[in-house]
Specification:
Layout: E1 2-6, E2 26-30, H1 33-39, E3 46-49, H2 56-65, E4 68-71, H3 80-90, E5 95-99, H4 106-115, H5 118-122, E6 127-131, E7 135-148, E8 155-160, E9 164-171, E10 177-183, E11 198-213
Parallel strand pairs: 1-2, 1-5, 2-3, 3-4, 5-6
Antiparallel strand pairs: 6-7, 7-11, 8-11, 9-10, 9-11
């Protein structure tokens, strides 16, 4: 199961949502993200939020066109996006994609980045990623992982988000590594590239943020 969640970030940061509109994908609107989906001809199956970012007319459209609306008070312990992510994890999704989660307010962006860690910390197999027009972000726990070459996102960066990532090994990359320990704050693994159609990265301890980007 793939769940696509659209937040209310600036629309100029969005990729073409129709590219991700698989027949089996479930679309979720978060606050103003619901109106963004409707404007792109996609009817969300469910919406979450306090909807303080939509106009009265936009709210009327959401009420008229969306069956599953979960409206919350503005004063709550979770962000609207976290409520949607929690729902997605409860459904047992294989993949959760976040769109409209970058640009605009930095506090919201960093909160969304932290949500990438939620399934790892919970021991879930669900992969959560943030996708915008220029980047794909996701987090990985220790183990061996494969990356396929994406010509449109040729730059790959590995950023430790735990005090240390141990024994990082990169195979099939322009700048390979073997059993390298990467501490928090290191920029050693910024802007690498695959030299083959696929490559692997592995490490024995910690959590890595992986960012695939284009200029």
């Amino acid at each position: 199961m793939i769940i696509n969640i659209v937040g209310g970030g600036p629309v100029d940061h969005l990729p073409d949502l129709q590219t991700y509109n698989e027949e089996t994908a479930i679309w979720v609107g978060v606050d103003k993200g619901a109106t963004i989906l409707l404007a792109n001809g996609i009817k969300p199956a469910i919406c979450f939020g306090d909807f303080d970012s939509v106009s009265f007319e936009e709210w009327q459209q959401i009420e008229m066109k969306v069956n599953g609306i979960h409206k919350f008070k503005s004063e709550k312990d979770e962000t609207d996006m976290e409520l949607a992510i929690n729902w997605g994890l409860e459904q047992g999704a294989e993949t959760i994609r976040i769109f409209g989660g970058t640009g605009g307010r930095l506090d919201h962006f960093f909160a969304n980045v932290q949500l990438l860690l939620k399934p790892i910390l919970q021991g879930s197999k669900t992969e959560v990623m943030i996708i915008d027009s220029q980047n794909i972000l996701f987090a990985k726990s220790a183990g061996e992982h494969t990356l396929l070459k994406l010509p449109e996102k040729k730059y790959i960066s590995f950023i430790p988000i735990t005090p240390i990532v141990t024994s990082l090994t990169l195979i099939g990359f322009k700048y390979p590594l073997t059993d390298c320990h990467i501490p928090l704050g290191s920029t050693l693994c910024i802007s690498n590239e695959l030299t083959l159609d696929c490559g692997t990265f592995s490490f024995t301890e910690g959590i890595l943020m992986v960012i695939r980007s284009c200029d």
